[in-house]
Amino acid sequence: MSTGYESLKNDKYEQEQEKKAYFTKNSIKLLLKNGEIGKTLFCKGGFGHTSMCILFIKSNKSTVKVYVNSGWSNSIVSYSDVNGFNTLKENSNYSNHMAVIKEWGIEFIFIENEFSRNSRYNTHDFNALTSVGGFETWRKKSFPMKTSWTIDTEMVQCFVDGTWTKVLPQKSMKFDWDGNFLNQTKENAKQTEHRLNTHRLRRNALSRTRYAAKKSERDFKKHLENNTLNEFDPIDSLLINNVDVRAKAIEHFGMNEILKDLPTTVLHKDVIDGRPYELLVISVPEKIGDLMAKNFGVNNTKTVTYLKMTNPSTGEYHLESVPREVDNKWNFIPEETVQGALAWRDGEYKMDFCHKSQTRKSTFTNEKYIMPEILT
Amino acid sequence: MKKYQQGDVVLIAINLEEFEYSKKNDGVEQIRSKNKRHELAYGEETGHCHAIYFEDLLDEAGVTVYKSRWGREDAPARLVHFKEDVTIKHEEHNPITVPSGFYRQRIVQEYNPFTGRIDGVID
Question: 10 Å Cβ neighbour count for B79?
């Protein structure tokens, strides 16, 4: 029984497509088998990575080292020799090789990722190298592995025991030419299983949340039509996604009725241009707190921050949620005031990409709220 | 920076250079008017619309609206150009009069505390 990459070649068209990928794969194998020590093979990255330069250097009798570098930096190989053999003259620009190719396959060496909180290893060079070859379909590339962003983590897709699956990257990853992962550690297998399981539970929680939001909106509209709104739980108004429908629910039940059983703190209140605003923190009841999928495996705060405001045209109340730092670490209101919440709501500032070592406060730009000339 | 706001639609005044740059680089395309109005943002659920009606315009072609080339059909506008002062109307907001000029349009954003997503508000 064929396993792994071989099992995918079941179609004549696919076989023909595969020949295109063989050009690079065979070239690399040829360099490994027949090339003299010091000979190089150079190519650009594949689809999406064409700005990257990839250099294969025969470093000893049975090893080819792979270097990946940005196309904007000085290249040591002349471009006229693209896809041809050339002799290495100097290698000062290529400090660390990112992969080693041997007869049995390829070993990737990942470097620690300083910029991401969730992904431990930097997979950018891995993506550039695995994009080499034909790019009509990804399975016909020289290396069939690829990365996949799964909720909050970069994972590597490859064959493990003949099954196409996702694994967390580890410092050294060995693959054969068909994309089978050869050296998975027990710790990696355990962490991968845990991560995939967490993702599954979180995905399910998100589905439940979306279902509950749609259901509450549907129920509200149905009860509104049938004049049976006494059967609708006012607290469910908070789940309604559509701001207009939510405002109608708030108008019908009244803000006090909705919030009467919910512990509410007023973080800040202000009057801007004659209009009152309040920043409220509401502790939601267990009934809808359990639906907070964002908290799944992250934290257990069951509080929601709302900006309470009035529609200046109709006078009806609006509750619109804004994220504080405890809610969302990547995008949150610059300061916990009405002005800060309004600036965030209107998109007045953006958060720059920040390094771990920087404090987040310093990365805000233009966080001040700009008062509209006219607001209705 | 001058800003005009009607409910969830925010118009930010920009200069010609910025407008031309965005037109070239932001992946926008001009949209045609329909229902005898120029639609700036359409509420799919409620059917309410932030729009400039032909009856309020001296010249129907005095308003040019651009939206994202890759957005859905009823996606809100991204860039607008008014050759004359215009009145924007909506079913649930008082009309506003915006002076002629070039504008970038934004939809105010909202955080969904239950799914953790940040999106433009839905109405």
Answer: 22
Q: How far is the C-alpha of A173 from the C-alpha of A175, rounded, in Å? A: 7
How far apart CA A154 and CA A348 sit, in angstroms, is: 31
Q: Do A327 and B113 touch (CB under 8 A)?
A: yes
| Cα–Cα dist A259/A235, whole Å | 8
Measured between beta carbons, the chain A residues lying within 8 angstroms of B4 are: 372-374
What single-letter DSSP state applies at residue A180?
Answer: B
* Beta-strand pair B118-120/B109-111: antiparallel
**What one-character-per-residue DSSP string does A116-159 give?**
-SS-SEE-HHHHHHHT-S--SSGGGSSS--EEEEETTEEEEEEE
Question: Measured between beta carbons, which residues in chain A are less than 8 angstroms from residue B9?
Answer: none
Residues of B in contact with A375 (CB under 8 A): 5-6
- B116 in contact with A, Cβ within 8 Å: yes
Contact A313 B93 (CB under 8 A): yes
- Closest-approach residue (CA) in chain B for A375: B5
Determine the distance in angstroms separating the CA of A345 from the nearest CA of chain B, rounded to an integer: 5
CA distance linking residue A193 with residue A200, whole number of Å: 11
> What's the rounded Cα separation, in Å, for the pair A41 and A81?
8
Name the residue among B5, B10, B110 with its Cβ closest to that of A321.
Answer: B110
**Which residues of B, range 9-68, sit inside 8 Å of A by Cβ?**
10, 43, 45-46, 48
In whole numbers, what is the pLDDT of chain B averaged over residues?
89
Which of the residue ranges A11-25, A130-144, A228-242 would you say has the lowest mean pLDDT?
A: A11-25
User: Is B2 close to A374, i.e. CB distance below 8 A?
Assistant: no
Q: What is the spatial distance between Cα A40 and Cα A158, in angstroms, rounded to a whole number? A: 27
Would the CA dihedral through A348, A354, A356, A362 be positive or negative? negative
Whole-number CA gyration radius for chain A: 28
pLDDT band with cut points at 50, 70 and 90 for residue B90: very high
| ipTM given for this complex | 0.93
* Helix ranges, chain A (H): 12-34, 124-130, 186-226, 243-253, 255-259, 286-289, 338-345
With left for phi above 0 and alpha for psi between -120 and 50, is residue B14 left, alpha or beta?
beta
Summarize pLDDT for A297-351 with one digit per residue, the tens.
Answer: 444 557 889 999 988 888 888 889 999 888 877 788 888 999 999 999 988 876 6
Q: Given B1, B3, B114, which is nearest A209 (Cβ)?
A: B114
Residues of A in contact with B3 (CB under 8 A): 346, 370-373
